[in-house]
Amino acid sequence: MTHSGNPFGQVLVALVTPMTADGEVDWPAVEKHIDDVITAGADGIVVTGTTGETSTLTDPEKLKLVEVGKSVSAGRAKIITGGGSNETAHAIELYKASEKAGADGIMIVTPYYNKPTQAGILTHFRLVADATDLPVILYDIPGRTGVPIKYETILRLAKHPNILAVKDAKGDFSEVSRVLNQTDLMYFSGDDANVLPHLAIGATGLIGVTANVAAAPYRTIIDAVNAGDLATATAEHKRLEPLVRAVMTHVPGTVAAKYILHGLGRISSPRVRLPLVGPEEWEAALIEDELDLVQDVPGADFSNFRPDRNAAAGGALPKVHGTTR
Prior knowledge:
Elements: E1 11-14, H1 27-39, E2 44-47, H2 59-73, E3 78-81, H3 88-101, E4 105-109, H4 118-130, E5 136-140, H5 142-145, H6 151-157, E6 163-168, H7 173-182, E7 186-189, H8 195-200, E8 205-208, H9 216-226, H10 230-248, H11 253-263, H12 281-291, H13 309-312
Helix pairs in contact: 1-2, 2-3, 3-4, 4-6, 9-10, 10-12
């Protein structure tokens, strides 16, 4: 199911962190959701990433998510810890602890808010990669971090023995092609709408938000691309398009994914932690309009969709604040 030499998998779910109505992690729901997406075809799980609300999780919660993921997956899928920190020292300690907790790999986000130079970005990634024996995915998402990992920096980072891949949410396909031509790095699509285009130019897989709702179609796309069957991959891409739009367009993907999963009865609450809030009435209506267009998508049967806009409203203040700076 994975490429030779690929320690991450190909269908990776950027896992939401199910929570109770008061904003505490719902651990039984976490276990169920991980099992659901693996059963549907995921061979990698990214816990504590952006979609998992890493910014408002405590470090102990992040480490427990790794431990729970390893226990539930039982070897069926790789467990990758995402997130990180914009403080290099904190990131190093967090990833060291994640390795001890059993993570199979780490995904390091570009330092955010303090907007380091490329020299600072290079040093940050190198020092974190030096601190662990785990394989590393670089997370390039300038829309959230404020700074891209520039092409020249990626080439230099590719020489590090632990840095094996990039999650690309930058959408510069010419740069992706250029890096794939000049390095051995694997690429993972970090934009749900661009999964098939990324795969078409040589990407290894995806790290997707919509896969929380429907992982099986992404398994179909990956298997079809691996077999050189572009027609099947394209047909599945087209079927997924309205669901991707519902999840990724109107509110943050975390918010929409939880709203949809709750409406499907797959998690007990759609609650997110502040400053994220659930969709407003008009946003929920837009999401539901998109869902009305979803047809024949495995795992996404909306005939009994029962959204609860009141349950999703607002956001929660957890008992213990997070530690992400």
